[in-house]
Design brief:
About 25% of the residues lie in helices and about 25% in strands. It is an alpha/beta fold.
């Protein structure tokens, strides 16, 4: 890490030498991903890139230079492995450097408040302590290798519904005890160099201009000295954002700063000292990341390292959570396997939105099982589909650009594309069209393999129409309405039906034109075409299952469902997947269900299958990681970072009050307060389908000999805990020890118990190890909003340990007689 003292002296010298215009220029982006250089003073460009499961670089959200794709946030959360997540952070630093970036826009640490948040896959957990521990490790891995972290989204972004304008109404106690904890740890424990504000309002005020959040909490209580930046197009004013504590408006070119900010200073609305403080924060992070004098122009490159492939595979396997196993897994040698389902031959490696990237490769479960077992032992049937939008039209597509909005005249630019998907932000058509006013005509030939009624699906952030042989089939222009595609800037998919004959070539044409932006300055389109599967597909899958020793059904969701910009409607498996699982299980009771989702799903077929493995979105080596667990090459040591309810209606935000979820009249009220996740199930007396922290394994463990040293509990609130963990099986494995604190008869409402420490312990067969866990006063405290302090009450506290939130066999009670008060 650079010497901050030396850098600080240089930064003050630079600030003295800079004009007001130059200082202001550092407070907004020059383009989508970088700040402007100040060549006169030898100040380079700070460049950032999206994460958190890779370093995408500076191309389109849907393309660009290929990058290594790591497991999604919820998968890393399921590992409960701090050291592993730090390894991932270090590897991502190398990936970011290969793209020429100085900062990674990661990690995402928002809390799993509901089970339908479209972005839960990107976040670690429903629990703030698990999230905070893993986020701290991720940040340390990044920053120890010179790449700045940008922890996000600060704060109250636990839903994607109207996220750019909705106000999250959260009382201070819930904020302090749940939602702010990961950010607090990121600042205090990890020293994060960056933090990104959320799109939403907090109690009526945009977080990007929230004086209490940015001023009192971030810079005051936590003494933050990094850069605070807006989410992309998430800054809405000039003086209010700067005065509140937002250092950087992104992306560029500026909308509310630049000349507007200079005028605000001259008018006295913003002080010179405030501008200097904001510029100092940016320069400080530039010094830490090596960007301060980095004037070199770098080409983005793909960094395909064997050690990254190995790490992704290992982390993906360790993320897998074995939810059920009736002595079927690991698979025994020589079995024949029917590999079934929409996710069997499609590698679902990541969620959607800004977390996605162009991966180096994709390994499907089929690919992984072929490598592990050999193709002659495998059979395949898709059974059904699970796509949200019609399958993307691909091939050799001609794309013509016009410098008008009606595709008239001659095109000013033409190119060939491999897919009918485009996401426009910066320079478009080689800079030959106005990014806010242009049109596109896409032309392709489509030859179906089978006859039938095909579905043509079209979605656009703009106006679009699709034609087949000159006939209008899908109209996403007439009556255009904003929906849930393209970060809420696009309409929902419009679908038209057209009869097609097998082997006949059809001309498909899509015409697209820009429209006024609603929130984000983007234009985009997506054109897909597909033939629905019928009952025969499920029957064929069941027949394949009956003909084999074991059936592995690969079902779940994908990045179309688990995506930024859109929440789920429920937690049922999309399409006919439940019917597929049930049919396969009836045909062969030795059925393994491999789930790939960004959160829980209802499992009406659970009693009829022999095993269930939750594999999440485990990165580019997905199929290898899944096969490693199924065959026993790797131990399934993942544990649930989110409670799985039996029914969608059981989850904490499913109420009769729409204000609580999904929100109403521009507000979403966190009416459940502290009671999310397992806290909710404890209070409501609802048994989840699988509790928080749950996971089976092939190895077995025993916890014993709990010892609690409370000698300092009375004086400073510190407690030391020790216990023995023994591997009682004949294979190596890992056990996650979880410690919960349960206050007895508190004077304020508190959860029945809360996770306060954990450890993942790897043991060989028969090996024992003493695990030691430390608790400080905050582990026993609640936040008193009136007094603005943390309070440890006199009274009794149970220290409960076990392997999940419902299995806590070890317990000791300690007590104290005096009150402790702690600053926030």
């Amino acid at each position: 890490m650079p010497n901050d003292t030396i850098a600080s002296a240089e930064i003050e010298t630079l600030l003295d030498a800079m004009t007001l215009d130059e200082q202001v220029s550092l407070l907004s982006g020059e383009d989508s991903w970088s700040l402007p250089a100040i060549e006169r003073l030898n100040i380079g460009k700070l460049r950032v890139t999206d994460g958190p499961n890779g370093a995408r670089g500076f191309g389109s959200v849907f393309g660009g230079v290929k990058s290594a794709c790591f497991p999604a946030g919820i998968a890393l959360g399921a590992t409960w492995n701090v050291e592993l997540v730090e390894e991932v952070g270090a590897a991502l630093a190398n990936q970011a450097r290969a793209k020429g970036a100085h900062m990674l826009l990661a990690p995402t640490v928002n809390i799993h408040r509901s089970v339908t948040n479209g972005r839960n896959f990107e976040c670690y957990s429903e629990d703030p302590i698990l999230t905070a521990e893993l986020a701290t490790a991720y940040i340390r891995g990044l920053q120890a290798n010179g790449i700045g972290a940008t922890v996000k989204h600060f704060v109250g972004n636990e839903s994607e519904i109207e996220r750019a304008t909705i106000s999250s109404v959260i009382d201070e106690r819930a904020l302090r005890e749940i939602y702010l904890i990961p950010f607090e740890w990121a600042v205090k424990a990890a020293g994060s160099w960056g933090i990104m504000t959320s799109y939403n309002r907090l109690d009526g005020t945009y977080t990007s201009e929230h004086p209490w959040l940015l001023g009192e909490v971030l810079h005051g209580d936590w003494a933050y000295d990094g850069v605070a930046m807006s989410d992309w197009f998430g800054s809405h004013s000039t003086a209010p954002t700067v005065n509140a504590g937002l250092d950087l408006e992104m992306p560029g070119p500026t909308r509310d700063r630049g000349a507007k900010l200079v005028e605000a200073v001259k008018a006295g609305a913003v002080s010179d000292a405030t501008i200097r403080a904001r510029a100092r924060a940016v320069l400080t992070v530039m010094a830490r990341t090596g960007a301060l004098h980095d004037l070199e122009q770098r080409e983005e490159r793909t960094e395909d390292r064997p050690q990254d492939r190995e790490l992704i595979r290992r982390a993906g396997a360790e993320a897998c959570v074995l939810l059920k196993n009736e002595a079927l897994l690991p698979l025994s040698g020589g079995v024949t396997v029917a590999v079934i389902g929409p996710n069997a031959k499609t590698a679902q490696i990541m969620g959607g939105g800004s977390a996605q990237l162009n991966p180096i490769h994709r390994v499907s479960p089929w690919d992984g099982l072929v490598a592990a077992l050999g193709e002659p032992r495998l059979r395949y049937a898709p059974g059904c589909t699970n796509h949200r939008w019609e399958p993307l039209l691909t091939g050799r597509l001609r794309v013509d650009y016009f410098a008008n909005t009606d595709c008239s005249g001659e095109p000013v630019y033409s190119e060939t594309a491999a897919e009918a998907l485009a996401f426009f932000t910066d320079a478009i058509a080689g800079g030959k069209v106005d990014p806010d006013r242009f049109s596109v005509r896409l032309t392709a030939t489509y030859t179906p393999d089978a006859s039938g009624a095909y579905r043509v699906g079209l979605a656009a952030a703009g106006y679009a129409k699709a034609y087949v042989d000159g006939v209008l089939v899908a109209d996403a222009a007439t009556g255009w309405r904003r929906g849930r595609t393209f970060f809420e800037e696009g309409c929902d998919e419009v679908v038209g039906i057209v009869e097609m004959e097998a082997g006949r070539a059809y001309e498909m044409v899509m015409e697209f034109a820009t429209k006024d932006h609603v929130i984000h300055n983007i234009a985009a389109y997506r054109l897909g075409v597909g033939l629905p599967m019928d009952e025969e597909a499920i029957a064929e899958a069941a027949a394949q299952a009956a003909a084999c020793d074991v059936a592995i059904v690969c079902v779940g969701r994908n990045g179309e469902w688990d995506t930024e910009g859109s929440d789920l409607d429920d937690i049922a498996l999309p399409g006919r997947q439940d019917a597929l699982v049930a049919a396969v299980a009836r045909a062969n009771p030795k059925t393994v269900v491999v789930l790939q989702t960004g959160g829980p799903v209802e499992m009406p077929w659970l009693d009829g299958v022999a095993a269930v493995l939750e594999a999440w979105y485990p990165g580019q080596e997905a199929g290898h990681a899944i096969a490693d667990v199924l065959t026993g090459k790797a131990e399934p040591s993942g544990r649930l970072p989110q409670s799985f309810p039996a029914r969608w209606a059981d989850n904490p935000t499913h109420t009769d009050d729409p204000k609580v979820y999904p929100g109403e009249d521009g507000e979403v009220v966190y009416g459940e307060g502290l009671f999310i996740g397992y806290r909710h199930y404890d209070r409501a007396g609802i048994q989840p389908l699988f509790p928080f922290g749950f996971g089976l394994g092939y190895a077995r463990f025993e916890l014993s000999d709990l010892a609690v040293d409370a000698g300092r509990f009375e004086s400073d609130g510190a407690v030391s805990v020790a216990l023995d963990v023994t591997n009682t099986s004949e294979r190596a494995g890992a056990c996650v020890v979880q410690l919960y604190v349960a206050p007895d008869s508190p004077t304020v409402e508190r959860p029945e118990k809360e996770l306060k420490a954990f450890a993942k312990v790897a043991l060989d067969p028969g090996q024992s190890k003493t695990v030691r866990l430390a608790l400080d006063a905050r582990a026993f405290a609640y936040f008193d909003g009136g007094a603005r302090q943390w309070v440890v009450e006199p009274g009794r506290y149970a220290i409960r340990l076990g392997t999940d939130a419902a299995t806590l066999p070890l317990s000791k009670t300690i007590s104290r007689t005096t009150r402790i008060e702690l600053k926030p």
